[in-house]
Amino acid sequence: MTVTDTQRSLLKSRLAQARRTVAAPAGIPAGDPDQPAPLSRAQARLWFLHQLEPDSPAYHVPAAVRLRGPLDTEALTAAVRELAARHHVLRTTFADHDGEPLAVLGDADRVPVAVVDADPARLTELLLACRDRLFRLDREPPLRAEIFRLAPDEHVLLLVVHHIACDAWSLDLMLGELGELYAARVTGGPAPAAPPLQYADFARWQATRPAPESDLDWWAGQLSGLEPVLDLPVDRPRPALADWSAGQIPVELPAALAERIGALAAASAATPFMVLLAAWQATLARVCGTDDVAVGVPHAGRHHPGVERMVGCFIGTLVLRGDLSGDPTGRELLIRVRERALDAFGHAETPFERIVDRLQPERNLATTPIFQVLLNVLDTPATPPSLPGAAELELPIRTTKYDLNLALSRTDGGYRGGLLYRADLFDEVTARRLAGWFRTLLDGLAADPDRPVGELPLEADPAGGPDGPEAGYALDRPLHELITQHAVTSPHAVAVVAADGTLDYAELDRRASVVAGRLLAAGMRPEEPVAVLTERGVSLPVAMLGVLRAGGVYLPVDPGYPDGRLSGILDTAGVRFVLTEAEHAGRVPGREALVVAGLTGEPAAPVPVSPDRLAYLIFTSGSTGQPKGVTVEHRHITHYLHAVRDRIGRPGSYALVSTHAADLGLTNLLGALTTGATAYLVDRETATDPGAFAAYLAAHPVDAVKMVPSHLELLAAHGDLAALLPRRLLVLAGEPVPWELVERVERARPDLDVQVHYGPTETTVSVLGCRTADIPAAQRHGIVPIGLPFANVRCRVTDPAGREVPAGVPGELRLGGPSVARGYLGLADGRFDGGWYRSGDRVRVNAAGLVEILGRVDDQVKIRGFRVELTEVATALREVAGVGEAVVLPVGQAHTRRLAAWITPESADPVLVRAALRDRLPDYMVPAAITPLAALPLTANGKVDRAALPEPAPPAAANGVPPSTPMEQRVAAAWAQVLECGEFGVDDDFFALGGDSFKAVRAVRAIDPQLRVIDLFTRPTVRELAAHLDGGARPGGLLHRLAGPATAALTVVCVPYGGGSAAAYGPFATELAQRMPDTAVLAVELPGHDPARPDEPQLPLPELIDRIAAELPAGPVLVYGHCVGSAAATELALRLEADGREVAGLVVGGSFPAARLPGRLSAWLHRRFPATWWTSDRAYRDFLRSLGGLDDDEGLDADVILRGLRHDVDQAQSWFTRELTRPDRRRLRAPVLCAIGARDRSTELYEERYAEWGAFADRVELAVVPRAGHYFLKHQASWLAERVAAAVAGWRAGSLPPPAADSVTGGAARRDLREFYLMAAGQSISLIGAALSSFALGVWAYQRSGRVADYALVTMLALLPAILLLPLGGAVADRVDRRRVMLACNGMGALIMSTMVALLAVDRLSIAGVGVLVGLLSAVTAFHRPAYLAAVAQLVPKPYLGQANALANLGPGIGQLIAPLAGGALITALGLPGVVVVDVLSLLAGFATLLAVRLPDRLFRRQEETFTRAIAGGWRFLVRRRPFLIMIGFFVVENYLAMLALAVTVPTVYAFSDATGVSVVTACSGLGAGLGALAMVLWGGSQRRALGMVGFVSGVGLGALLVGLRPSLAVAAAGSLVWYASLTVLNAHWLALIQVKVGLDLQGRVLATNQMLAVAMTPLAFLTAPPLAEAVQPLLMPGGALATTVGRVVGVGDGRGNALILIACGLALAIWGLLGLAYRPLRRMEDDLPDAVTGAEIADSLDEVQAAADRLATASAR
Hints:
By secondary structure, the chain is an alpha/beta fold. It folds into eight domains: 37-207, 2-Layer Sandwich (Chloramphenicol Acetyltransferase), CATH 3.30.559.10; 241-303 and 312-381 and 397-455, 2-Layer Sandwich (Chloramphenicol Acetyltransferase), CATH 3.30.559; 479-854, Rossmann fold (3-Layer(aba) Sandwich); 861-945, ANL, C-terminal domain (GMP Synthetase, Chain A, domain 3, 2-Layer Sandwich); 955-1033, Non-ribosomal Peptide Synthetase Peptidyl Carrier Protein, Chain A; 1037-1085 and 1112-1149 and 1176-1292, Rossmann fold; 1313-1503, Growth Hormone, Chain: A (Up-down Bundle); 1508-1728, Growth Hormone, Chain: A (Up-down Bundle), CATH 1.20.1250. The protein has 56 helices and 47 strands. Strands 16-15-24-23-25-26-27-28-29 form a nine-stranded mixed sheet, sandwiched between helices. A hairpin with a 2-residue loop joins strand 6 and strand 7 (154-162). Helix 3 crosses helix 5 (168-187). The chain is globular, with a radius of gyration of 40 Å. Residues 962-1046 form the Carrier domain. Its cofactor is pantetheine 4'-phosphate. Keywords: Membrane, Transmembrane, Transmembrane helix. This is Carrier domain-containing protein. One of its GO terms (biological process) is amino acid activation for nonribosomal peptide biosynthetic process.
């Protein structure tokens, strides 16, 4: 922020009150500009940040100015350079001299200034590319400028300055001075005075004036005890390395609110800024659950009067610490904020960098030091530059330097700005909530400042809850009656199976009644606790049911309890009777021990028990160290059983695998017995032995199990997970459940229903639940949500004062409803309050409405201020090779608190484990102590016994081991030189030894000049850094290790897809390394594909392979190539085998061999006109986006990606062409795995096509990734890694794929290609003949009668049947032999045309007859075309299919252009009989060539659904999207007018010319279509596709107008060309919009619907044309009503009436297009429609895909 006048006066008052006497600052002396200068403190920090993140544009400061009116670009260029000449810092480079950076002055001519002609549609793209282009500060000046010429009188000036040379204040100075310099050059006036001092002078002066220690002491005191990281409600865990990508949402405060803010500020002797800061800090305090909030505030930093007009980086940052303790009122908080702010401004001269150095906060790369949230308030808007017609442009922000940055500017009486947020931490919905909470709280603060800020609402109307659905369960029966009823209804059904026997329901009830009788006879009182001390045998349910039948309270105790704890529980409960087994009877002295198995006597009748009587008593751990007994009534437990049954159904059997002394096991025991199912009681030894438990499940039909997740983890660590799971249902409860465990279960048993349940014992077993299959992959990180409440359960999330907080804000979970227990036995506890229970669990409700557990409110795990999810660290430990089980806990207090880990087995090396963790976790999450154990101690409930864990081992860094390897010694020597100390070991931390940012830069350069600073930050010990370097981590190479050990048994080399990066393989590498721990995964970074190095040359494929092979480590290699990367991958595998290297296998993903047609002509065409030329960048981008491969939100440089894609496609296609046709073909001995996404549109027909890899290897197998698209290597990385690992394991074991037949090379392939050329030639000739005769017959009809009606009839019948019957033709082609269909079509066509010849010969051919015959011929074409295209796919070897399809479509394309020309010439020379004879001969030629062709049995693409189903689906899609309905209405009118114009075009031209003239005009339409397509290739289309789609309707109208304007062949031909060029451009925009907004899967439906609508207008237009022509024609005949007016322009005579219709249609179309552009819902329809999203998974049916798209559209509309 800048300091306002009000703030200055307050500051002066404070200074006067403190009587601080400060001497006036000394003047700044001018220095020698030619001498290198030191960096200022602000520059030094920015220089370091540039070294740390050289590829980040986060510190670029842009200014974009739109200039309207005449502009002298030469003068402006010279003014920019003069600006740099006047302000030296703008032409300074920053060189490293002996580890210290110095500023070196350069020449102003080196400042790049460019004038660029720019397409307005690409302006934003060009501006962002220029803004984000990286500075090389050691060799380039920190300023560049580009002047974009959009039009002769419209330009945009972009200045980009690195922050090291500029701040916002300086930018205003530069723009103002630039305007003056430009004006001086243009007008010849005087230039402004030169600045007396330079920034280098200030830097030298500052270096002599260190910040006073007293100020540093003040800041240290102010920030003492501040948590280093604000615990913001992030949506994702902090990554080890922040990527700083940004999202932004607008924030606006209306003028009325701003006025109240000002009034509150004035009444409190504060400023509006202070009010905004107080509200922002209060909001953050609420959402972070803290009363101590630090917020950064920028300030100008220009404390010396000599720098007011100096350009340079002066901006500083103040850390304002907010104190919200004691729940102050708004006014009290504002006073606190005011005092803190004024004090801070009084010490503002202390540089933030010095404060950081003084405080020495923990160093990490996950966030910023000291504060993470910024507030920037500008009270005065920047002055616009004094350049002609200047207006500032705002550019979208892609990066941020802080977690949250709230920026507000005073505008129009209010405040306007935005909240910038880190996209790697927050979702947009969360950021919007934060902004909304701030606005609401601020409004409340301004309205009622005397109200406690903790009571101010965050939401105007909070939703409350969530609450479970209402259900009217019958709770009038006691628990035991739900069990005993089955003794009547199914007495012989098996109730219990245990190691010591089996009971049916009748026997269970009989024995329980005996137990009840003995208890009653012994004097048991109602609601008296009776202990059940048994193992998990048949005595347990008998005793439990007996106690309940007698009206007692069931108290389970575990025989595994120590005697002391057992005695304490029984004493607390006042137990007199213990039901037990003989071996435990002696453990309960002083009480009556009844051995269940030996009880005899008369059965007792059940005692009447009301639902509000106690059913059981279960003891839990207490905060005092003594167990507390939870009392649960019958109605509580029966309600739970009803509610949980609604969630899990009615499994036929359950297994109890944990202690019965905790309520978690009641689900298994009572869930079975109350539903008539079977309860399997698994003894302790079996339940904890993986082998025995797996055998038990194999022998017993267990449907459901509920267990603790750590229990399952322990079993799975030593056994086959799939064998350890029940048949139907797994419920995990009792602990937070990591997603990693759930996903392992899902992989092992995809059919298993996995649920997570939550509930304290005090609320009766469980009250919330989550079915994991309902959670999409994108939301799976960290811990599984505890889900939604069960029926009738009420949830509230509250702050410490018990006030409800909104969804998204963390708080304590309070539970209410019929499941809340009565209370604690004999204790009054505030946790039970008015039917509610305070759980003590910290939760929040996420955006999906699910409750997420965050930890405990009373013992939240924080390490160095960072919230740590212990399960995440434990999961990371278990994923380290060699580690089995793991548990992580915090140890120590306050600042000494750290993480400790205990792992198995005992042989694990803590040093190696810690090194592995550093590769994937932030340093604060790496345990300081790691203790290996033989086994983790467990409690009776199967949980880890934390109390039994030994003291953590001391950290390994204290061992003082000296460096031993050459690389360790090299690293240590560099450290010793930089740190000026020599006593440290290989495991000591660089920063703990006194290293800082600058020393880190010096150290890495002393070790290796090309090593990155980040490598030292992530590997801060000698051992780790040396191992990193020894592992081949050298910059400049192509191979980058993504996962796995440096020395590996197998190396996997991954080649990216077209235009892709090595980073794309990150998820796959991580997953594969987990499954193959001895495997290193390397990925290739292709030169010229890095957006940070766009000028890097790309490599031809042979050179690329040479370099990869040279870098590969020794040992076996597995090669993976995705998409077009498969060509390079295959070549690499072939090369390695030829060099004698062992290739374990080749994996090709999402790809088949794709080649050009062989032959010299094809090669020549490729050299002259490469295929990649014919697709624009825009089209490529849209196609990639439709596949899910390019996202604008990723902040990627699309131009670099597309350039790389073009190069990769060309290289791959050329390589496949060479390899498939070379006579000495090479083949792999290694097997090939071809992985394909089941829903990938680019790899259809994979069932057959995968075998094409048989051209390169003898053995090939197929893997189909379910519901996957093209980029499954990212989205289904886990599945893919599992499949690759299994394949490699099988290959190593000798299980190789079956031999693959090679069908795409050799003699058979050459024969198929020859037959294709023959068939293509014959069918093209026949199709050209059909087009020729269709044209000629229309002209003949008009020649014969001169009536528009006859021409319209023939032309309509030539068009409509082919369109209407095309779906049927496609269906026939799918089901009938294509060759026979084409033979029949050629024969039928010849017969029809022969009939016409015969009728002509006898002069019996009428207009009606021609109409019938043309209609039949059109119908034949509807069957001919689909059969021909399907036959191409069937005949051609599919590697050549792309080019073959293009060749196959050439015939119809040539026909559109040639048929009118040839038809006109032939009908003039030979008459209609000659044309018809030519057509008959062409059809016979097609028939003859087909006789010589045989179609092999290959697959071809079939229709996915019927035409009617496609129409229905397309119509449903369109009507649910209002913008598409508007578009349909618009084009219904456009289609009618265009078809009406078409109907009168030939009659219009023929009237003033002849058949030849008609052919010329018609041929120009074909030429125009070609030119329109070429224009789209070169241009790419308008930025908004709707503008091109709607705007070119006016172009169509202009063309139609020109055709009719004058009786001139030249004008008509030009009009025809414009007409069809515009139509092609229009359709290209329309198709692009459909591709982006509809997506590949649903395009067929929408296009079919559009075709139906377009066809609907054709008959109407052709039927209305004749009466219109008859009505209008007399008007323009000599003497007609319009002959002397309109006729003067368009001409008079025959056909000019038709011309007038053409002109009217053209004018109407032109106006209609302009109206469409003016109508915002049509012009901006793209804004109102969400882009089609290709998700991680694609549904199997089009209806499911459409349903997902509908949900997205509905959400977007909200």
